[in-house]
Amino acid sequence: MLARRGGPPPDTRVGRTNEFRLCERWTSSAKSVFQFDVQGSVAKSTHAGIPWLKRIRETAGGHVHFWPFDGWQPPAGRAVIAEVYPSIFRNRYARESHSADEHDAYAVARWLSESAARGTLDHYFNPPLTRDERRVARLEGWILGVA
Questions:
Q1: Is the separation of the CB atoms in 44 and 31 below 8 Å?
Q2: How far is CA 40 from the centre of its chain?
Q3: Domain-by-domain residue ranges, the chain?
Q4: Is the separation of the CB atoms in 124 and 111 below 8 Å?
């Protein structure tokens, strides 16, 4: 298969299992998005979700802010799509009768709600990065809550 625009063919894997984005290097346990088929792997869901993000961008256009790709501070009145790492928040809240996945979603939603109510969410939208780190993170992405 021929490469397009000077890059590898679309079905060629280009990342290494030990390759971490900047934000993953800022956490204690995040896995590489190129590490497939291991316990706690996010690689399959990450790569499967990218076409859906493209679809949302095409459909919703200016109504959605993809953080941090569209900028570090989301404008008022826009929905925000951000990467989260549920294990950051998981142990803050009792699990009760939720499944593990349900509890992860609940913990993230509750943390977002509580942070917004306290007025601290803006802090997390602006992690303490250098100018060069911000440039890298706007290309690679960042995990909301890692500051």
A1: no
A2: 15
A3: 22-144
A4: no
